[in-house]
Design a protein that fits this description.
Helices cover 34% and strands 10% of the residues. The protein is of the alpha/beta class. The strands form two sheets. It has a nine-stranded parallel sheet with strand order 7-6-5-4-3-11-10-9-8. It has a two-stranded antiparallel sheet with strand order 1-2. α3 (109-127) crosses α5, α4 (174-182) packs parallel to α8 (231-244) and α5 (184-194) packs parallel to α8. The chain is globular. The relative contact order is 0.15.
Length: 429
C-alpha cells in the first residue's frame, strides 16, 4: 500500500519499514546530540532544536502582532528551543499571504521590538538562555492574498500549479521584480532595529523567490539560464545585506520542488521526479561564499500542491503517490548530501514531525551522524510548544503532532492557525 496512517510502536518498526523502502532514516535512541550547543557566526544556540516558521494568521490588519501572536511566541520561548525561526513577515503589502499576515513597518516597529524582547526575556527567565530569533522576510507571489482573496503575482505560468493558465497580467515584469528585491533592504533594516538576530530571505515552497528558481520558460533577465533564474534571490540577498548591517543573513530554501522539469527546481531534465541537487548546491555555495552564511534552513516541496513531499501526513485532500516514509527519506538524504557538500555550513533540517514520538530519534540520528547540524520542528511546535524541555527533562513527549493537517486548513482559510487537537479551546475548524 502506497499510503498508510502512522501505526508504529517502536523505533525498530520504523527502521524496518525504512529498510524495506530503501529510505534513508538514521535513527538513534540517544537524544544527547540535540542538546549540544551550536555556534552560528557570532551567536551560539544553546541546543540543536529549532522551531520552524509557522504562520498563525493572527496579526492585525496593519501587520502588527496580535494577541494570539504574543501567546504563541511566549509559549515557544518557554519551551526551550535554541532557535526560534519567526514566521513570515511580508516585505510589501501586496505580497502578504493573508489579510492578517505580519508586516513590519516604521509604524509598528515598537510593537515588534517589544515582542522580540519578550521572547528573549522569557527564554532567559524560564530556561537560562536567550533563544536566537530569526525573522523570515517574504513576498508570497502567487500565493498573495493581502485582502483575504487570492490576488496572485506570478513569475510565469506553471501548468502543475494551475488548472488553466493565469491571465498574463498576473505575470510580474522585470521592473516589478526589481522593486520587490529592493524591498528586502528596509525589511532587513527594521528587523535589525526590532532586535532580531538574523534575517531569512525566504526562498521556499514556491513563494516568489523560490518560483523564480524554476523560471526556465520565462523570457528576460529573470528567466531561462541559471544566472537569470537566481538573479532575484541574489539581488534580494544584496538588498537585505545593506539593511541588516552586522546582523546575519540566511534563507529557508527549497532544494527540490517535486515538479518535473521545466517546472521544478532541483530536478533533472528528462528524469521525472528524480532529485538533482546540482543547481541548488551551486547556489548555496555562491551565497555562502559571498555572505558567509552562518546557517541554512533546507526544505522541499509545495504545501499547496504536493505537501506530502515535505509534510507526510495521515489525512490530506489527496492520496499521495508514495509511502510517507519514502518521502521522509528523500528529505533526509537531501539534507545529508547538502551538509556533506558544505561541512562548515550548519544545515537546519525539516520534516521530522511525521514520526510523532520517534521524531526526536530521527533528529538525533541526523544531527549525531553529521547529516545536519540542527533539527527544525514546525507542526510539532503547534501541538506541543514545550517539547524541547520535555525531551531534555524526561526523554519523551506527552503530546505529539498527529499530522491531521488541520492547522494548514485553518491557515489556507485565512483563519488563526494552531493545533485543533491539543489546543482546541483556542483553535477550532
Amino acid at each position: 500500500m502506497m499510503h498508510e496512517k502512522f501505526h508504529y510502536h517502536s523505533i525498530g518498526e520504523v527502521e524496518q519499514t525504512a529498510a524495506e523502502l530503501g529510505a534513508f532514516l538514521p535513527m538513534q535512541e540517544d537524544l544527547s546530540p540535540l542538546f549540544q550547543p551550536l555556534t552560528l557566526g557570532r551567536h551560539t544556540a544553546a541546543n540543536r532544536i529549532a522551531l520552524q516558521p509557522m504562520e498563525g494568521s493572527d496579526g492585525l490588519e496593519d501587520g502588527t502582532p496580535g494577541e494570539l501572536t504574543w501567546r504563541r511566541y511566549e509559549r515557544f520561548a518557554k519551551g526551550g528551543a535554541g532557535l526560534i525561526w519567526f514566521e513570515a513577515v511580508a516585505t510589501v503589502p501586496e505580497g502578504r499571504a493573508s489579510a492578517h499576515q505580519l508586516r513590519l513597518t516604521e509604524n509598528n516597529l515598537d510593537d515588534f521590538k517589544r515582542l522580540v524582547a519578550h521572547i528573549k526575556e522569557t527564554g532567559l527567565k524560564e530556561n537560562g538562555f536567550e533563544p536566537i530569533v530569526i525573522m523570515q522576510s517574504t513576498n508570497s507571489g502567487r500565493y498573495s492574498k493581502p485582502t483575504g482573496v487570492p490576488d496572485p503575482m506570478i513569475a510565469y505560468n506553471c501548468p502543475p500549479l494551475e488548472e488553466t493558465p493565469l491571465d498574463s497580467s498576473r505575470i510580474l515584469t522585470d521592473d516589478q521584480l526589481r522593486r520587490f528585491t529592493d524591498a528586502f533592504e528596509p525589511a532587513a533594516r527594521l528587523a535589525r532595529q526590532a532586535g532580531f538576530d538574523g534575517v531569512d530571505v525566504k526562498c521556499c515552497h514556491r513563494y516568489l523567490a523560490c518560483e523564480l528558481l524554476s523560471a526556465f520558460t520565462r523570457p528576460g533577465k529573470y528567466g531561462g539560464s541559471y544566472e537569470n533564474r537566481t538573479r532575484f534571490i541574489k539581488d534580494a540577498f544584496a538588498a537585505a545585506k545593506a539593511g541588516v548591517g552586522d546582523g546575519f543573513l540566511t534563507s529557508r530554501m527549497n532544494a527540490y520542488d517535486g515538479f518535473e522539469h521545466p517546472w521544478g527546481w532541483g530536478m533533472k531534465e528528462g528524469a521525472g521526479l528524480e532529485v538533482d541537487l546540482t543547481e541548488p548546491l551551486r547556489l548555496i555555495g555562491e551565497l555562502k561564499a559571498q555572505y558567509d552564511l552562518p546557517l541554512l534552513n533546507i526544505t522541499m516541496g509545495n504545501p499547496y500542491k504536493n505537501p506530502h513531499v515535505n509534510r507526510p501526513y495521515d489525512n490530506g485532500n489527496y492520496v499521495p503517490p508514495e509511502h510517507p516514509i519514502e518521502g521522509l527519506g528523500r528529505v533526509m538524504k537531501g539534507l545529508s548530501d547538502i551538509q556533506h557538500a558544505y561541512p562548515d555550513l550548519p544545515i537546519l533540517g525539516s520534516a521530522f514531525s511525521y514520526l510523532r514520538q520517534y521524531a526526536p530519534n530521527l533528529a538525533a540520528g541526523m544531527v549525531g551522524g553529521g547529516h545536519c547540524a540542527m533539527a527544525g520542528f514546525g507542526r510539532m511546535a503547534f501541538a506541543n510548544p514545550d517539547f524541547p524541555n520535555q525531551l531534555k527533562e524526561q526523554g519523551k513527549l506527552d503530546k505529539v503532532c498527529l499530522t491531521c493537517g488541520n492547522c494548514a486548513v485553518l491557515l489556507r482559510a485565512g483563519r488563526c492557525a494552531g493545533c485543533v487537537i491539543h489546543d482546541r479551546e483556542v483553535y477550532k475548524l
